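QA checklist item 7 of 12: single-chain prediction sanity check.
[x] sequence parsed
[x] length recorded as 223
[x] structure emitted
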Amino acid sequence: MSTRRWAATSAVMGLVAWALAQLGPDRAELGRALGDPQGLVDSTGADALVVVAVGALAWLCWAWGALGLLLTAASTAPGWAGRLSAVLLAGVLPAGARRAAAVAVGVGLSTVGPAVLPAVVAPSTAVATASQTGPALQLDWPAAPPAAPDLDWPAPAPGEHVVVRGDCLWDVAESWLSRQHPGAPVTDAEVARAVHAWWQANAAVLGPDPDLLLPGQVLRPPG
C-alpha cells in the first residue's frame, strides 16, 4: 500500500470513528446491554438492543480495520519487525476480511443512524409543526334544515270526520250510527239511509259521486 493510499484510508477510518461516536451507542448503553439485556428490552423495546448490538459490531470491525492499518504501516519497517508485521497482517486481516469489515461498518452506520437521527430531528419537526399550526379552523358546515312548521289546520268540529286513505262513506256512516246508538245492532238498511244522509249533508264536498272520497276532506254529520 502506498503512503498516499494509507493516509487516505486512515482519514476515512477517522471519519468512520467520528460517525460511530456520534451515531452509535455510548458506553452507558453498551454497559447496560451487556449487564442487563432483558431490562433494556423491557424498558425501550427489542429494537434498542438490536441497535446497540449492531453498533458494537461496527466498533469491533472498525478496531479490526485500525489494527490492519497499524500493521500495514509497521510492515514497511526494515528488518525483522517489518517481516513480522507483514505476516501478522496477512493472518489477522486478509483481503477478504478487510472487505467484510468494511461492509459491516457500513451496515452499522446505516442501521444506527436512522435510529438516532429521528430523536435529533424530532424537536425541530415539532417546532416547525407548531409554527405552521394556525388558529383552529372553523368548518363552515351548512346548518341543519329547519324543522317543518306545524300546519295550523283548523281542528274538525265534534262529530265531523276527516277522510283518510281507504275510507268509504258506508264505513263512515256505520261508525257514526254505532256512536249514536252504542250497544245497539246496526242494520244495513239503517246504514244505507245514513249514507244517503251523509251524502246530502256534504254534497258540496263530495259532488255527484258519494263513493269518491279524497283524503283530507272534512265531512259534516247530517243534522
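[x] summary fact logged: The chain has a mean pLDDT of 74.
[ ] second reviewer sign-off
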